[in-house]
Amino acid sequence: MSPYQSFLEERDEILRHKWIESEKAGHDIGFEAALFDWVTNCRALWKERRE
Question: Residue 27: left if φ>0, alpha if ψ -120 to 50, beta else—which one?
């Protein structure tokens, strides 16, 4: 897989996480908050499952 394809997949996961967390919060949490939360809490497991 190309680095660009990996980037696109990771971005899609972050956007999905943003949507889910925004729904829970009842408002748009913003990309930066979603990115920070996803990297902090989800990225390692996501990468592990991809391999």
Answer: beta
- From CA 46, how far away is CA 51, in angstroms rounded? 9
Q: Judge contact between 8 and 19, C-beta under 8 A.
A: no
Based on its alpha-carbon atoms, the radius of gyration of the chain, rounded to whole angstroms, reads: 12
pTM of the model: 0.90
How far is residue 32's CA from residue 47's CA, in Å, rounded to a whole number? 20
Instruction: Show pLDDT as tens, one digit a residue, over the chain (51 residues).
Output: 899 999 999 999 999 999 999 999 999 999 999 999 999 999 999 999 988
